[in-house]
Amino acid sequence: MRALSTLASAALLATLSHAAEQADYYKREEIPLPPGEVMEIGSIALLPERKVAVTTRRGDLWICSGAYDEDLTKVSWTKFAYGLHEPLGMFWRDGSLWLTQRPEVSRLTDSNKDGKADTFETVSAGWGIRGDYHEYAFGSEPDANGDIWVVLCLTGSFTAESDWRGWCVRVTPKGEMIPTCSGIRSPGGIGFNATGETFYTDNQGPWNGSSSLKWLKPGSFQGNPSANKFHKLGKDLPAPPEVADKSRIVSERVKHASFIPPAVVFPHGRIGQSPTGIAVDKTGGKFGPWDAQLYVGEQTHSQVQRVCLEQVNGIYQGAVFHFLEGFEAGIIPVRLDQKEGVLFVGGSNRGWGSRGSKSFTFERVSPTGKVPFEINTMKANKDGFTLAFTEALDPISAANPASYDMAAWTYILQSDYGSPEVDQATPKVTAAKVAADGKSVRLTVEGLVKGHVHQLSAKGVKSAAGNPLWHPEAFYTLNEIPN
Amino acid sequence: MKRLVLFLLGASAAAVAAQDGGQLYALNCSACHGNDGKGATGGAFPPLANSPWVTGDPALPVKIVLHGLEGVVEVAGKTYNLAMPPHGAVLGDAEVAAVLSFVRSSWGNSAAVITSEQVKEVRAQSAERKQPWTGPELLKDHPLKIEASALSKLTSRAYFGEFQQIPDFSTAKQENIEEENDGLISASHGLRPANFAVLWEAEFNAPADGEYTFKLDSDDLSRVSIKGTMVAEILEIGPMGRAKEGKITLAKGAHPIRIEFVQGGGDMGISLGWKGPGVENWKWLSDQSGRGAKPWPNIPVQPLGSQLAIYRNFIGGTTPRAIGIGFPTGVNLAWSADNFAPELVWHGLFMDGGRHWTDRGTGDEPPAGQDVARLSNAPAFAALAETTSRWPEKPQLTTRFRGYKLGAASDLTFSLESGGCRLLDHYAADGAKTLVRTLRSDAAAAEPLAVLLVRGKAVTAAGNGTYEVEGGLTLTLKAGTKVRLLEDGSLTATLEGKAPIEIRYSWR
Predict the structure, then answer these.
(1) C-beta atoms of A82 and B31 within 8 A
(2) For the domain A23-274, what is the CATH superfamily, name and number?
(3) Which residues in chain A are contacts of B403 at CB distance < 8 A?
């Protein structure tokens, strides 16, 4: 009995010390919600005067004041609109809130200035819906042209029974709808990287061996051929490729130039299993040293992952790292205030389970000012990878190849639901050279495999202060090996 | 000695499998089914602990893991309407066997392990399966082991005849008596005429001292009494889905229970469940469980004060882009943004959000109120020339939905573009039984527009611009409106210039 209680307290201590670690760097706080309301949050928008708007899956739109304040107990909420159709995208522009709802892009305006929307303008309703709950529509903020990018989930997440399901469309401010990419399955969120390219997350299932972050290059095919037929609805749209079942992305890409591979695969279960919203860091360091990186929400594991991207031979690729965890429900939208360096997340676990055990949540994360010892970026070289760290390294452990472990694998491209990890390889770190700045390492790796996810574990690396990495793992998708 | 070695080997192999199974469970299953097997988020997802779905015939859980499961299922007395994705393409036979063996031996479950060979066999047998299973499909081939009923010494007595209320069984003529050894009451057991009554008598075996709740549902009348005390009764003719609950305090032990039932023709059914000390989910005393009832709560959506209620989700009887509007006085419409028309009008309650706001929210929800009239089912604007005899299925005219505006007086205007004009379709209530619609164009169109008012319904002209539709609904158009009844029965009006069309939808 005694031994058992010792064990239990050891386990408790371990849990506490781990939880304390995140709190050392980032403060996660629940923002009180309007009492008695079911606030299953599907989108977040940042408004003037430090107000924050959220939409709920039930179709309400609330505006929060005080979400930036030190004392969150004093937040106040007003209901701006109701009776919306499951909005999953929202932003503020020209005195209005622009929403991507299930059937349309809409512009909501409070024209009589009574604090409530009265004008609900339909900007575009150019895609089909047929009463299937899974035909979700996720919308972006405006791009440089002012266009909203909308990714349209397949019917039931399997088939294409309504127009433009499985496609990405752009909606111009005037309401023109431009079909832009094909091959989509079941998105969880959409956003831009630091240079304004559009990315979305797609979930494990048919033609997605694992979930991933994908680059919506205009004209591209994203891998799922279920909705290829809709090119016939457009003007002079080429037929998307009919990729071969039970093949590999790396070989199908050779046959079909329009097939853009997932930029970063999130290996199922190893780092989340249902990625959602996307936010780019343009805070200039206010949220940590992750300039130009992406934060990606995670429904099932109630987390936020961190992604660094680079372009090699014209294709995006990069690494995903574990970052924030312990959120109270499944995370759907994430919004980063670029001026303040505050990350807002919201979510719900209705219909899809999550580690966070509340039915819904609205939270903010702010940096404490203490920077964790982490791999900041991971970039591919012809013969390995370069890792940049957030702190000066212990030169001995960082230069020891035995401090690094690698594994590599890929997934089957197939119509079946998901894929096991296949074609396992064991790339070997043969040399680790610490750069003159003492903060980065160039790894020489034998056995890189084009197209594979490369898992790096840098458990042996210590900082100059003697600390291990907060998160020693990275998963790099090597679509292209630099020349 | 040899046997012992084999036994030990077997045990350690099982231990390894159990360990892998636990990891696989944590990775693939626990987010929804919970680390404790009780269903995540306080049981919002189905439990696996003490679930007959996983502890019985091995083929049942193997099929679910391989191909997934969607739709309504009942587990341990609670209904769920979710979707589980297939795992057969991700997990190999050994992994499926390991994770299910872990599930079958955890949290109080103690069913036999499942082997890779068993998984392989089921996988081969169900290789053609491409869609997730539904509960009824699976249960047909793999019925769940039913727990022993809490009823013993159950007898049923049948009485034939058209009963308007629950009869005095002491004076009614009994046709037969049967012993029901399974301890379950059944409305459909035995050959009976269209109208009959049944009296069941038994002992209810209370497992502990405490308060017991009974849930009774029936099509048509029913009553349950314990120790001579009425606990719940349903006294009006009607379908399943009108469950009544009642409570009674019982000591541990057997208590006489009496269940009375009247079938008044048409569909029939009876379900009776109970909960008590230590029993959190319903246990059923009937062959029908509460499945007949909808697996979500009522979440009424109603106007608040002078504020209109708006419901945008899938409304049964109209199109996916329909927008439900409920006026504070109790008149309602569902305006189709696909067909640009008020396709449904009704009065009374507005909508019930329970279906769409529980679990994944599948399917269409019909209006909650009364006298729902489906007025039309095709795009409502066309060129006059297209509508000389019949309303076209797909008019040539392009019409676009442009949104809606809430007015200051509990009113609302839908906005459209059609034939180069902006059309404004305004709605307000006039009391509890009348909806007033005013349709106008903001510019005089080059050509008059035909507007569909009613299609696919019998319409009777009653004079003075009044047309009778159904369910006591009439449409009244202002004098001078050009109205036509087409050969296919469609009622149309003509929109010319900037002159508005006013239509009053009224119930008697």
Answers:
(1) no
(2) TolB, C-terminal domain (2.120.10.30)
(3) 106-107, 119-122
Ramachandran assignment for A50, one of left (phi > 0), alpha (psi -120 to 50 degrees), beta (any other):
left
For position B443, what pLDDT does the model report?
Answer: 82
Contact check, Cβ <8 Å, B359/A349: no
Q: Which residue of A has its CA nearest to B353?
A: A58
Q: Using CA atoms, how far apart are residues B208 and B212, in angstroms rounded to an integer? A: 10
Q: Which chain A residue is nearest to residue B24, measuring alpha carbons?
A: A269
Please give the biggest Cα pair distance in chain A.
Answer: 75
H/E segment holding residue B172? none
Pull the structure tokens for residue B56.
């019985």
Considering the domain architecture, whether residues B336 and B448 belong to the same structural domain is answered as yes
A375-477 CATH fold: Immunoglobulin-like (2.60.40)
Q: How many domains does chain B have?
A: 3
Instruction: With H, G, I as helix, E, B as strand and everything else as coil, classify residue B386.
Output: helix
Query: What pLDDT score was predicted for residue A13?
Result: 43
d(CA B309, CA B356): 16
> Is the full-model pTM beyond 0.90?
no
Helix axes B93-104, B59-67, angle to 10 degrees: 130
Q: Which two tokens stand for residue B35?
A: 């680390």
Residues of B in contact with A133 (CB under 8 A): 356, 360-363
* Domains in chain A: boundaries: 23-274, 375-477
Looking at the complex, report in whole angstroms how far the Cα of residue A285 sits from the nearest Cα belonging to chain B. Answer: 34
Work out the burial of residue A16: count CB atoms within 10 Å of its CB; fewer than 13 is exposed, 13-18 middle, 19 or more buried.
exposed
Say which amino acid occupies A194. A
Q: Classify residue B5 by its DSSP letter.
A: H
User: What pLDDT shows up at residue A56?
Assistant: 98
Q: What is the ipTM of this complex?
A: 0.94
What's the rounded Cα separation, in Å, for the pair B84 and A461? Answer: 41
Relative to beta strand B253-264, strand B244-250 is: unpaired
Q: Specify whether B344 is located in the same domain as B440.
A: yes
Would you state the structure tokens that stand for residue A70, as one six-digit string?
């030190």
A-B interface: how many C-beta pairs under 8 angstroms?
A: 127
Mean pLDDT for chain B?
90
DSSP, residue by residue, A11-39: HHHHHHHHHHHHHHHEEEEEPPPPTT---
Asked if residue B312 and residue B228 are part of one domain, the reply reads: no
CB contact under 8 A, B40 and A357: yes
CA B199, B203, B209: angle at the middle one, nearest 5?
135
Same domain, B165 and B106: no
* Amino acid B290: pLDDT: 56
Query: Low-confidence residues of chain A, pLDDT below 70?
Result: 1-20
Task: Judge contact between A407 and A193, C-beta under 8 A.
Answer: no
Give Cβ neighbours of residue B454 (< 8 Å, ≥ 6 apart).
B375, B376, B467, B469, B475, B490, B491
CB-count burial class (<10 Å; 0-12, 13-18, 19+) for B128? exposed
**Are B219 and B260 part of one and the same domain?**
yes
Cα(A292)–Cα(A376) distance, integer angstroms: 11
pLDDT (tens digit per residue) in B2-35: 444 444 344 344 444 445 899 999 989 998 999 9
Longest CA–CA span in chain B (Å) reads: 105
Residues of A in contact with B358 (CB under 8 A): 350
Domain extent at residue B477 = 300-507
- In order of A1, A10, A13, A16, B473, the CA distances from A4 in angstroms are 5, 10, 14, 18, 74
Locate tokens 């469309």: which residue?
A169
Query: B450 CA to chain A: closest CA distance, Å?
Result: 24
Q: Is the dihedral of CA A203, A204, A207, A213 positive or negative?
A: positive
Q: Which two tokens stand for residue A126?
A: 């150019």
Nearest-angstrom CA–CA distance, B70 and B306 = 41
